[in-house]
Amino acid sequence: QEFGHFVGTVVLGLPVALLLGIKREAIGATFSVGREPSLAIIGERYGMDSPEGRGVLAEYLTGTLFGALFIAIVAGFIASLGIFHPNSLAMGSGIGSGSMMAAAAGAIAAQQTPEVAKEVMTLAAASNLITTTIGTYFTLFISLPLAVWGYRVLEPLIGRITKASMTDEGLRHSDVSLEVPELGWAGKISAWLAAGALALIANYVGYKTLSADAFTGMGIMIFCAFVGEALCNLIRRKIPAVCMVSLVAMFLTSPACPWAAEIARMTSSINMLAVITPMLTFAGLSIAKDLPAFRRLGWRIVLVSFLANFGTFIGAVLIAEMFH
């Protein structure tokens, strides 16, 4: 299922991006549907001020603004053709975004009987949960390396020079690297504390919540980041930090942890969007100098983002149909 979700984005999006003259931004825009975990992965691997960072942020913004509407139209149209079983379409709807999943599943369910519609919504929610959890690791270890490999192979063959590829950096396909700039512990802890403080402020401004549970919940989140980073260093960064942090967080809220219920209650007092706000702010500040590059990408990156969203949907639908 995850193979269909994430490989579909690369298979459809990457060749078109290269034909349109998009360079390394194509990696960030096509290795996934560009939701929050993808921002974290690219931010750790390349930095948000890199071409890959611009690509994933463009994908994120496109999905946020138009993703739900686009996927609802696509899912509804494909469902109306009667080619695929509704359950297969439901499995394809769980692409890792709650709003896009709801839009796609709703468009499919609207064309079914009440009994089938309930099953569609259930399967879509289950698929979305799988994509949000297992999909993060699939993205790290399969789809991102696949996108990098595909770029290195295809760029010399079908890559074009257009207005979108005229960057100031003069980097070629051979310059793609997975090296990550190092940051000391003092810098990391300062960044976590600053992000936590900004998230608490955003939580209060946006959702009028600034309770003791919110402070404790933020402390738990920072603790997860600290432990995950420490474990990552312990294994000499053979596994990315975002993977280790998510594993620590999932353990703390799993039945294996005796305090799971309390931890879940306290962390749930912080709205997810409040946590995302500082991250997007930092990303925006870091890429402000690259606004000319965004303008050069223009409509091309939007088209590639739509293709990536379509690819993840239809890829998962095809896989589900094979095993239906």
UniProtKB/TrEMBL annotation:
InterPro entries: DUF3100. Keywords: Membrane, Transmembrane, Transmembrane helix. It comes from the Bacteria. The chain crosses the membrane at residues 6-22, 60-84, 90-110, 122-148, 214-232, 239-261, 267-285, 297-320. Pfam families: DUF3100. This is Branched-chain amino acid ABC transporter permease. It comes from Pseudomonas amygdali pv. mori str. 301020. The lineage of its organism: Bacteria, Pseudomonadati, Pseudomonadota, Gammaproteobacteria, Pseudomonadales.
